[in-house]
Structure formats: structure tokens, C-alpha cells
Amino acid sequence: MSFIEIHQNFGEHTQFLALFIAVIAIVWITLVYYSYKKYGPKKTIMYFVPIIIATLFIESAGVASGRYYYPGYILYLSVVNGAVPLIILLAWSVNLFLFMNMGRHFISKLYQKQNFLQIIYMSIAAGLFGVCLDLLEDPIAHYNNWWIWTASLQGIKFYEVPILNFIGWFVLIFFMSLATLLIERSRFSENRKVLLSITSISISGTLVFIIHGLIVRLFEFLRLS
Amino acid sequence: MENTVVQFILDNIFLFLPLAITGIIITLILFFTGKKENISPPEELTSDNKTLFNIRINVYVLVYLFIWIMMIIIGVLSHFLIPTLVGGTIAVIPLIALILIEYTSKKSKVL
After folding, report:
1. Contact at CB, A209 and B60, closer than 8 angstroms
2. Lowest mean pLDDT among A20-34, A91-105, A122-136, A154-168
3. Whether the predicted pLDDT of A25 surpasses 70
4. Alpha-carbon distances of A121 from A38, A210, B11, B64, rounded to whole Å
5. CA A58/CA A55 separation, integer angstroms
6. How far apart are CA A123 and CA A129, in angstroms?
7. For residue B1, what pLDDT band results from cuts at 50, 70 and 90?
8. What is the pTM of this model?
9. Where are the domains of chain B?
10. Residues forming beta bridges with residue A169, ordered by sequence position
11. Which helix (H) or strand (E) holds A77?
12. What is the enclosing helix (H) or strand (E) of A170?
């Protein structure tokens, strides 16, 4: 299986996929342009590239594990035998930038001290905001076949979407926001911050894996998954 | 056969472990060899508020509102009404929270 796959069955077995892709494309272009104008190219790379790399691995593993799949897109990327549409990776970069800044805006009004605790609060708020939107988006996506959760999956579900998915959203947005905000506030040079944001995916990815793994085990123990 | 993502990574640990270890080592090298500047990086002072139809609104609230409206429209057009209503109600909480915090902070500044 190659790294890049091009499929020719656009929109097959799906509803409103073109509209969904258009929404992501509009939002992505708007936010990248806004970030570039406000923060410059280096910070824009720091905000958008690491999450694309991280979710390429996570989503590819999710597809390869057989939990869900993405039918009807054109351009797919694959790293561990699981094909993920490019637009989904761009959507994840939107998620991080949007929710992290919403969390930052919200917490900075409530807690003005610029310390580690403020970054923790901001990351928690970012994760919660992300889950709130996903509770709307994921059931609609599953219903319209933008991505399909395997019917045989066990455990608690929210309109056919496993609850563990929403926990995964929180954990991922929390740790990626935390890493991004910590690097952003560090006193390293801009070039080093960009490098650190990319290499630190290994640390935040490992933490996501451990924490999410423990939650999965807890759910299995409680027979909720 | 489906599996959890965590189980999948454990099954392919010899692929993921070298990647993670290499990344962690490079991060530590970058962290400990980098010169730190003496001054703290300045917080961005420019506002995220924009004026649209004579209303000042936060850019991120506006983008979130756009996604929320589009998802509601798609949900309704799909005749997926109850989950759209339930999800839409939950998803409006961040919007309300951000608008309320903006309003209360402005009010306290005036007082």
C-alpha cells in the first residue's frame, strides 16, 4: 500500500460530503491565513503541522485497527496500512488551532496569572470545547457516511458513536494544546520552537497513548467497552 | 476484525517504539542544547475581535459559529433531527460561555 492513494469514487454511499469538505476547506484557509497574518509563518507551522503529523498516525492506526473507515474521498494518506483522507488531517489542524485559542481566550478572562496552571486550564477548556462540537459533528458524520464506525463495536454509544471516541478527542486536544502552549511560552528562539513542536509529537503522542490506553482498560474493566 | 487503536499500537510496538524513542531523544537534545533568551516572549497584544455588521465579535467565536450553523443545516437536511437537536444544544455551550465571559469582563471594566 502506497503513502498516497487517489480514489475515483468521490461521494459514493455518502450524503452531503462535498458540503462537509467545503466547510472544512473554508475554515482551514481562513484560519491559516489569519494565523499567518497575525503570528507569521513560523508560528503558523508550529500551530498547524505537528497536529497533522500526529493525527496522520493516530487516524491511520484507527482505520487499520478496523474501528472505522472513510469512504468516498479522493486523496488519502496512509502510514500504517490505514487510509486517511487529507481533508480529515486538515480538519484536525483546524480543531487544535480553533479550540486552543478559544480555551486561551476563555481562561485568560477568568485566570490572569501567566503560569503553568493557566496553561493546564486553557488545555482543559480546549479539550472540552472540542468534545462539545464533536457531540454534534460525529453522529451527523456517521449518519451521512463521512466516516463509518463499525457496527459490531461494543460499549456505550452516543447515536452510534462510541463514547471512547469523545474521550480520545479530549485527551488528544488537551495534550496537543498543552505541548503547543508550553513551547510557545518557552524562551527558545523561534526556529527551535518550530523544531521542538514537531519532535515533541513523540512525547505528547506517548502520553495520549498511555492515558487513553488506561481509560480503555478502565472501560473494559467496568464492562463499558 | 476491529480492535482499539491502543491495542493496534501494542500489536505493532516494534514500528511505533523506535519512532517514539527517536523523537523523545531529539526533543531532549533540542531542549537541553538550546540557548534561552533572557526576556519572556511577549504575549500577543493585538485583539482577536473583528467588526462584522457593526457587531464586534471574536474571530474564533465567529468560526465556531459558522461550523455550528453548517452542521445544524446538514443535520436538518439529512432528516437527522433529534441527534442534531441534542448535539446542537451541547455544542452551543462553548459559544454561550465565550459570549458571557466577554460580556461580564466588559461590564466589570466599566464598573
Report:
1. no
2. A154-168
3. yes
4. 24, 21, 34, 20
5. 5
6. 10
7. very low
8. 0.94
9. 1-39, 49-107
10. none
11. strand A75-78
12. helix A163-185
| Mutation for testing the A interface, residue in B1, B3, B6, B12 having most A CBs under 10 Å | B6
Evaluate whether B20 touches A205 at the Cβ level (below 8 Å): yes
Tell me the Cα Rg of chain A.
18
Residues 86-105 of B with CB under 8 A from A: 86-88, 90-91, 93-94, 97-98, 101-102, 104-105
Tell me how many degrees the CA angle A25-A30-A31 measures, rounded to the nearest 5. 105
The DSSP line for A118-152 is HHHHHHHHHHHHHHHHHHHHHHHHHHTTSSEE-TT
Which element (helix H / strand E) includes B56? strand B55-58
Name the residue among A64, A143, A199 with its Cβ closest to that of B27. Answer: A199
Residue in chain B closest to A140 (alpha carbons) equals B75
pLDDT value for A150: 87
Q: Which residue of B has its CA nearest to A208?
A: B6
Dihedral, CA of residue A102, residue B74, residue A57 and residue A128, to nearest 10: 30
Q: What is the pLDDT of residues A44-80, one digit of tens each?
A: 999 999 999 999 999 999 999 999 999 999 999 999 8
pLDDT in the model for residue A98: 98
Cell 484557509 belongs to: A29
B101 contact residues in A (CB cutoff 8 A): 106, 109-110
pLDDT-based confidence at residue A224 (cuts at 50, 70, 90): confident
**Taking 50 as the threshold, does the pLDDT of residue A103 lie above it?**
yes
The predicted complex's ipTM stands at: 0.95
pLDDT band at B20 (very low <50, low <70, confident <90, very high): very high
Query: For the segment A158-186, what is each residue's pLDDT rounded down to a tens digit?
Result: 999 999 999 999 999 999 999 999 999 99
Which of B2, B9, B83 has the CB atom closest to A209's CB atom? B9
C-alpha grid cell, residue A56: 496522520
CA distance to partner chain A, nearest, from residue B108 (Å):
11
- Name which of A136, A87, A24, A73 is nearest B88 in CA terms: A136
